[in-house]
Design goal:
Layout (H helix, E strand, L loop, with lengths): L7 H12 L4 E6 L2 E7 L4 H7 L9 H21 L2
Antiparallel strand pairs: 1-2
Helix pairs in contact: 1-3
């Protein structure tokens, strides 16, 4: 398993992103499956589960970080099909 470092300012976003791991919106078509993005309707319970911690970010900082992780993951997931 590859190890990597996560800056403290990004730790909360990573934890929330991992918590949203089963919340992908996926559509199927002639070309196969396409990962569209995360279902943000499930974000509130995930945030409640990760509301404590020394590196918690306010929403205005968390959301851009989460969207960047989502976009990068979608690129990788959609290349693997």
């Amino acid at each position: 398993m590859e190890r990597f470092e996560v800056w403290p300012d990004h730790w909360h976003a990573l934890q929330v992103f991992l918590g949203m791991g089963s919340q992908w919106r996926i559509v199927g078509g002639m070309a196969g499956l396409l990962y569209q993005g995360l279902d943000y309707g499930a974000l509130e319970p995930v945030l409640r589960a990760h509301k404590r911690g020394p590196h918690r970010q306010p929403m205005k900082r968390l959301m851009p970080q989460l969207r960047r992780l989502e976009a990068a993951a979608a690129d990788v997931l959609n290349q693997q099909r």
